[in-house]
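We modelled the chain as a single entity of 166 amino acids. Its sequence is:
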Amino acid sequence: MATYRIPPSMISKRTYFGDDEGNVINRKGEALKPDFSPGKAAYTKGSVHPIVNIAGKKHNIHRLICAARWGLPRKGQECHHLNGNKFDNRPMNLIWLDHDRHMHYDRRMRAVRKVVGRGIMLFERKDFIRWAKMGERRFTKMLTKLKPAPHGTVLPDCEQEPLRDN
């Protein structure tokens, strides 16, 4: 399993790593235990993300892992979970997006979930941005053709690198 160094500028010049499973690892090779309790988790616009405590400061795990694997965000960029699961912090599930595009993708993912169901990765990573950029008429037509997924359906993980949204 590969590890990637988290940029020290994000964590007060300390040395930590992220791995392909979405864990934050210290210099000793120990994975930091994320805090999943909603009472202690970092709230961002009404949603809860798992956090880790490093040197008395709380950090969102998904931002650390995304920066470790794909580089620091540009000004105004946010970390987006492609499959919508905020607890799935694998690098292959994360991408940096600007705020407007992030909200656009989230609205579309909610619309698709109403039809198909929760917890299902609908698209291969390479198709995600193309799907999210399609026009409203084509998107609505696609929604009418979708059928609910059988209960418990899990699609295979994608192992290709993400497209960086410029």
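As a brief sanity check on the tokenised model: The chain is about 30% helix and 20% strand. Residues 3-145 form a domain with the Homing Intron 3 (I-Ppo) Encoded Endonuclease; Chain A fold (CATH 3.90.75.20).
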